[in-house]
Write a structure and sequence with these properties.
The chain is of the alpha/beta class and about 650 residues long. The protein has helices spanning about 5-60, 65-75, 100-105, 135-180, 200-245, 255-265, 275-285, 285-305, 330-345, 370-385, 400-420, 460-465, 470-485, 495-500, 505-515, 535-550, 565-570, 580, 590-605, 615-625; strands at about 80-90, 90-100, 110-115, 125-135, 270-275, 310-315, 320-325, 350, 355, 360-365, 390, 420-430, 435-445, 455, 490-495, 520-525, 550-555, 575, 610, 630. The chain folds into four domains: about 5-140, Beta-Lactamase (2-Layer Sandwich); about 200-245; about 255-395, Reverse transcriptase/Diguanylate cyclase domain (Alpha-Beta Plaits); about 405-630, TIM Barrel, CATH 3.20.20. It has 20 helices and 20 strands.
């Protein structure tokens, strides 16, 4: 069905629908009202007749003058509108008379029932039933219907003529709108009806004048657009240069390099990173650092300028990239990288009266399938980690697999924290004299989606890299204190020197141990290898905890280069002897000598000793023989979800 878009058509159609609706509504309402009125009039006539003769019939029945009743009935039947009269007394018909029309069932009728009472009494004598013809009602309604239909036809004719007249009045608007349908500023329209002295003429004149102004404006706008396009093009070129150029060195920047790398099908890449560039900025200032970057970029550019297939760019603050669009031989590629390292290390940069030398680390990507930038960056990071000057990316390094694994563990860790699936497990520590549990170490565990219990070996180092370690520490302290709040047992939690130097962490620890009233039962285990030599700050933490009643232990004592100076300078309650000494103590004589020294030294300082990694009976016996105070290990008890006291 074609959609109606013409305004004039919409006006006429709307007028038509509304008018038809109004006329039909009036017709139906009047029809119903008048028919009901006619009906009520005829019913009232019949009721009047019944009410009029009722007293007379009542008197004759009361006086047992039945013949009089029959005379009255006969007179009623003579009325052409009365088809039947019937009088019943106690369900017996006294009188019954019917007209010929009623007998032949030729007419429809109204039925009137009237109760006849005794004269001057409410006692029921009989029932009068009158069948009254509705012939007059039908004639009246037929006559009215014909008049109404005639009037309706007349109104429809008037309405059709009115619609045609309105359509004729609106036809000029349709012609004007048709002219405007395909209008554009570049074409001239001759509007009709301009000469008419009415509203249509005014509209046509106004549109014609408007067309002239639009045409003039369009020409001006076209000239402006041409000018603006030229300006936009020039500005775009400037912005593109700015977007893809490094402000300091005027080399292509990271965005430009990324674009170039994606267009290279068989290239290679070197990323050059200045070693310890932050220290140069901190010591000599950013002006000196910027000068070094500018001079270095010029020197590297001079080396590469004779090659048309090489692009030098600056990736970030202290990193440059050399993109080989046409891949040289592997021998030449490695030679370029090594020569570049030697060349840069021989440079001396002058700033004021200072001579500054720099070193660089280079990561390379040569024979790789795409992702040159990412793989060269991976090689650079690994070279930094391994303290090498140059490293070429190799698929056999499985670096990407390591990165993927790290990302997965970061996701698992964050998910476990959000679901409150970081929990403490408890490993009892036994008194070697009594054989009873003396305390328990709280060990962090991660519960994954499959309900597996994961060791911190997989996620603790990663938590430090993504700055979640302190959050894990707080979780362990909170949950451990909650668990032991109602248990009569000492417990230990691990804490790093970094945590001890954090004022917020210190406040959190104080608040938590006071909230759960565990200050006299909590033991903080400090790793000996993690900056414990920062005695002033560590001592401050220990002293504050001691004031609250807490105890302190040095964990993994004896690992690496142990320093007995810790025991003099720090107020320690326990030494946990490292598992590397304990695990072979039953057969390793040297380990026994070291442990004897530690135990003897600790006894003189009133420090209790704890043996870690007690994993079999032989070691346990040796630990007791060497007079170590307490033992911890799988032989005695594994870490468990709940303490079995």
């Amino acid at each position: 069905m074609k959609r109606i878009n013409s305004l004039s058509t919409k006006i006429v159609l709307s007028f038509t629908i509304i008018s038809i609706f109004i006329i039909l509504t009036i017709f139906i309402v009047l029809e119903k009202i008048n028919k009901e009125a006619f009906y009520n009039i005829e019913i009232e006539k019949a009721n009047i007749i019944a009410r009029t003769i009722e007293p007379l019939i009542a008197l004759n029945i009361y006086l047992d003058m039945d013949y009089k009743v029959k005379q009255i009935t006969k007179q009623l039947i003579e009325n052409p509108n009365i088809l039947s009269v019937e009088i019943k007394k106690e369900n017996n018909i006294i009188v019954s008379a019917k007209s010929e029309e009623f007998t032949n069932n030729k007419q429809t009728f109204f039925k009137i029932n009237k109760i006849i009472h005794e004269p001057n009494s409410s006692k029921k004598l009989a029932v009068l039933t009158i069948i009254y013809s509705n012939k007059t009602y039908v004639e009246l309604t037929d006559k009215y219907t014909k008049i109404t239909i005639g009037l309706l036809i007349f109104l429809i004719i008037v309405f059709v003529l009115l619609v045609l007249y309105i359509k004729k009045l609106l036809s000029p608007l349709r012609k004007i709108s048709k002219s405007l349908k395909s209008y554009s500023p570049n074409m001239k329209i001759d509007f009709p009806f301009i000469e008419q002295k009415n509203e249509i003429g005014l509209i046509s004149n106004a549109l014609s004048n408007m067309q002239d102004k639009i045409s003039q404006y369009a020409k001006k706008q076209e000239n402006i657009n041409i000018f603006l396009e030229e300006q936009v093009h020039n500005k775009t070129q400037e912005l593109r240069i700015q977007l893809f150029t490094d402000d300091l060195t005027k080399l292509p920047n990271r965005l430009s390099l990324i674009e170039n790398v994606t267009q290279v099908e068989n290239g290679s890449l070197l990323i050059v990173n200045i070693d310890d560039f932050k220290e140069i900025n901190d010591f000599f200032g950013h002006v000196a650092g910027d000068k070094i970057l500018i001079e270095l970029s010029k020197n590297i550019n001079n080396i590469c300028s004779h090659k048309d297939d090489v692009i030098l760019g600056r990736l970030s603050g202290d990193e440059f990239a050399i993109l080989f669009i046409k891949k040289p031989s592997l021998k030449d590629f490695l030679e370029i990288a090594n020569n570049l390292i030697s060349y840069i290390e021989e440079m001396l940069f002058s700033y004021e009266e200072n001579k500054i030398s720099i070193g660089v680390t280079i990561g390379g990507a040569y024979d790789v399938d795409g992702a040159l930038l990412e793989k060269a960056d991976i090689a650079l990071k690994l070279a930094k980690k391994q303290k090498k000057s140059f490293l070429l990316y190799d698929n056999n390094l499985n670096i990407e697999e390591q990165y993927k694994n790290n990302r997965e563990w970061i996701h698992k860790l964050k998910k476990a924290m959000s679901k409150d699936n970081i929990v403490p497990y408890f490993q009892p520590i036994y008194d070697n004299t009594t054989g009873r549990i003396a305390s328990a170490e709280c060990l962090i565990r991660l519960i994954d989606d499959e309900n597996n219990v994961i060791s911190p070996l997989y996620f603790l180092d990663i938590s430090k890299r993504v700055r979640l370690y302190s959050d894990l520490t707080k979780l362990m302290i909170k949950k451990s204190c909650q668990y032991f709040e109602t248990l009569d047992c000492s417990f230990s939690v691990n804490i790093s020197v970094e945590d001890m130097l954090d004022e917020n962490m210190l406040d959190y620890i104080k608040m938590t141990i006071k909230e759960h009233n565990v200050a006299t039962r909590i033991i903080f285990e400090i790793l000996e290898s993690e900056g414990i030599e920062n005695y002033e700050e560590v001592s401050k933490f220990i002293d504050e905890m001691k004031l609250l009643g807490c105890k302190i232990a040095i964990d993994d004592f004896g690992s690496g280069y142990s320093n007995f100076e810790h025991l003099f300078k720090l107020n320690i309650d326990f030494i946990k002897i490292d598992g590397s000494l304990i695990k072979n103590i039953d057969t390793d004589v040297n380990a026994q000598i070291v442990i004897e020294t530690i135990v003897s030294f600790a006894n003189k300082l009133n420090i209790l000793t704890i043996a870690e990694y007690v994993h079999n009976e032989s070691i346990h016996k040796k630990v007791i023989e060497l007079k170590i105070d307490r033992s911890q290990g799988f032989y005695l008890a594994k870490p468990q979800e709940k303490m079995n006291m």
